[in-house]
Write a structure and sequence with these properties.
Elements (H helix, E strand, L loop, with lengths): L18 H11 L4 E5 L3 E2 L39 H4 L2 H9 L2 E4 L6 E6 L2 H10 L4 E4 L4 E6 L5 E5 L2 E4 L5 E2 L9 E2 L2 H9 L27 H16 L5 H16 L7 H13 L4 H15 L2
Parallel strand pairs: 6-10
Antiparallel strand pairs: 1-2, 1-3, 3-9, 4-6, 4-8, 5-6, 7-8
Helix pairs in contact: 6-7, 6-8, 7-9
């Protein structure tokens, strides 16, 4: 497995670069793909050509980047190790407004276990092998050698950041990075039942005169749910809007005949949570979609 180069180097001084861009160049030189973050620890918005994801979101599940735009577009997919890009005119004004530097762990062959509070840190110390740890505002980042699928809320206070994700650069931390253990991979594969949403029932009486429900055809319904799951999974930006629009589309097609079950709704909620949505937002989006359709 390819490992990132040694990144424990002192950054060059006196070169006229601002602090964030200097940090980015040092990390990039060590094989760590970087991108700027604006206030709120979030990426900069897409360029005009990609605003609203009208470009189709090139760096998606089927074509996972990197972004081909000159500016820092599509969040994690903007991460680069190219010093010419980092110092380019398209990025220069962004660095002036940046509040932090982020990196793409998967692109560096790493996985970050993001422990968001003291309880999560305690759980990690009791259940995961020791590795390099980096203090955060409320918890710790545990860094392992190896990449995997990213996922949020794999258990209370624990996120996995690796492929198609970004993590804020907070320094070198302490300890030696160890290989990615199966215990971390299994968090995404299994996922505890405690993080599953509790979707509301979606049993809606059939409209008068509608006749036999064609949506009860297993293949028709399954195809619709699978397409909805894929649409949410492919979202790169505007995830909130994508989730709501997808819920609305599902309900407009399948919501009036009573063929949707809690299992179908749970599938949609689960994939939305994997993109970072909370159970509360999923429930609100589903309720708002039903209200708009008069269900």
């Amino acid at each position: 497995m390819t490992q990132p180069a040694d990144i424990r180097r002192e950054p060059a001084r006196g070169d006229g670069l601002n602090e964030h861009r200097r940090t980015a160049l040092d990390l990039a030189a060590s094989g760590v793909p970087v991108l700027p973050l604006r206030a709120g620890k979030v990426p900069f918005g897409n360029c005009r050509r990609c605003a609203g994801n009208v470009c189709g979101g090139r760096p998606n599940m089927k074509n996972p980047g990197p972004c081909v735009c000159p500016g820092p577009c599509h969040a994690w997919a903007a991460a680069t190790t190219d010093p010419d890009v980092i110092k380019s005119l398209a990025w220069r004004h962004v660095w002036r407004r940046a509040s932090a530097v982020a990196y793409h762990p998967g692109g560096a062959g790493l996985t970050v276990v993001d422990l968001d509070d003291a309880d999560a840190v305690t759980w990690a110390r009791e259940n995961l092998p020791a590795t390099c740890t980096v203090p955060t505002t409320r918890g710790e980042h545990w860094l392992y050698l190896g990449r995997m699928q990213s996922a949020n809320a794999v258990r209370p206070g624990v996120d996995i950041k690796s492929t198609m994700s970004y993590a804020r650069w907070l320094g070198f931390g302490t300890g030696i990075m160890t290989p990615l253990p199966d215990a971390v991979r299994e968090l995404v594969v299994k996922g505890p039942a405690t993080i599953r949403p509790a979707p509301q029932a979606v049993t809606v009486p059939s409209a008068a005169g509608i006749g036999q429900c064609r949506h009860r055809t297993p293949a028709f319904l399954e195809r619709g749910i699978a397409m909805a799951e894929q649409q949410i999974s492919d979202a790169i930006s505007g995830v909130h809007a994508t989730v709501y629009a997808t819920f609305l589309a599902v309900l407009s097609t399948h919501g009036r005949c009573g063929c949707l079950t809690d299992t179908h709704v749970t599938r949609l909620f689960t994939v939305a949570q994997a993109k970072g949505e909370t159970a509360r937002h999923c429930t609100e989006a589903w309720t708002n979609a039903r209200t708009r359709l008069g269900l």
